[in-house]
Amino acid sequence: MESLILVLNPKTLRSKLLKQGINGPAPSSFLYGNVPDMKRIQSTALKVPIDERSVKEDHISSLFPYFEQWRNEYGPVFTYSTGTSQMLYITQPELVKEINLWTSMSLGKPSHVSRDRRPLFREGVIGANGSLWAQQRKIIAPEFYMEKIKIPKTAKQAQIMAETHIRVDLDLRSFSADVISKACFGSSYDKGKEIFAKIRALQEIMAKQGLFIGIPGSSYLPTKNNQKIWRLEKEISRLILKVVQERREAKTEKDLLQMILEGANNESLRLQSTDQFVVDNCKNIYFAGFETTAISASWILMLLATHPEWQTRVRIEVSEICEGSYPDFNMLREMKLLTMVIQETLRLYPPAMFVSREAFKDVTIGNIHVPKGVGVWLPLATLHRDTKLWGPDAGVFNPDRWSQGTAGACTVPQVYMPFGVGPRICLGQNFAMIELKIILSLILSKFSFTLSPNYRHSPTCKLTLEPEYGISLIVSKI
């Protein structure tokens, strides 16, 4: 009976969308939906040799050729399916704006994503929904208020860049991991580096699934990859609980870890396991707090290396504001050009490629009746490079477009979503912006840099958008 429902439910949902004039590719498999089509289109898509790629090239068509093909065929709103999950793909600005402003919990984290990404997120603040998500956000959010953020008094990782050739993405991961560890968990990167390494390994294995998720039961099969995932999940939990035990035995200041520990004892949450609650949220923050920020910093340095005029302009700004001293909050607020560079980079290379939601009850978005159970996908990279929204130079690095803010940069400001949208917007966006400004101002004040001949431009999606072969720079001391 259950298998029959799995087959009939997506068919019913698709029928309801088709009746409203929302078309899309017909599923080629009752169990896998359009996944076979996606794989076929991916394998036959025209591939530009890496050595011939330009940093100005649009990477969307090479990463997700099936979405581009279907968008050209069916328009800005279409439906497709992965496994037994029915999706609604939306690039119509007015609908994106409405979803952006949505406050009801009737749209939440898709259940199939939560299920298939469960080893990484489980029931933490990133993966949870409903009252559990609301309570977790209430516990964690205050620790990311501006007045709580501590500017790290260290330029240690910036000093690493004194080498002639560097893999900047590796160094920035170390820096970002150190910052999030000290600021939120009271420990140094040395103590948490094994946790970070295993979370990174878990992320890379899970990224191989790509968007081909939603196939029921696939995460429970004892495949080679699943066995690796299960082993890493256990090891990460053990390491986090070891840190937690040390914290429980020590007398330390109230930081984010302490707030999570206290939140785990909240009886209103009705938790099955307080240890699992702590592990889930620590994993969520470890992942979101260091991975995305480090990758964004890498893309920023790559773009500044290929646009020396902007590198010079921002370096002059940093020099005039800081006058050789370590940046404080007031100095960081004054760095307008640097802020514009960060915003432009997040537009061209958003860490998350999609914002995904699921209708937990029948809802109406614009003139579309979205049945309960339908997933909603918003492609950030496509929306962020739409010439109708950003002008004819949408694919070009041009920080000046931000001189009048988001409203001046884009005709529909709500389509700019590097930190997500609505009530689920990233908790750590202020923290991330401060961290980015600190490391970039330190690097720019001490070094000039160009792209190494070894650099190979190949953006790839590993749950986040990152450089497949890293960012190699040639660095000179100023």
From TrEMBL:
Cofactor needs: heme
- One annotated Gene Ontology cellular component of this protein: membrane
Example GO biological process: isoquinoline alkaloid biosynthetic process
Q: Does the keyword Phosphoprotein apply?
A: no
- The answer to whether keyword Heme applies is yes
**Domain of life, source organism:** Eukaryota
Family note: Belongs to the cytochrome P450 family.
Q: What is this protein called?
A: Cytochrome P450
Q: What is the scientific name of the source organism?
A: Papaver somniferum
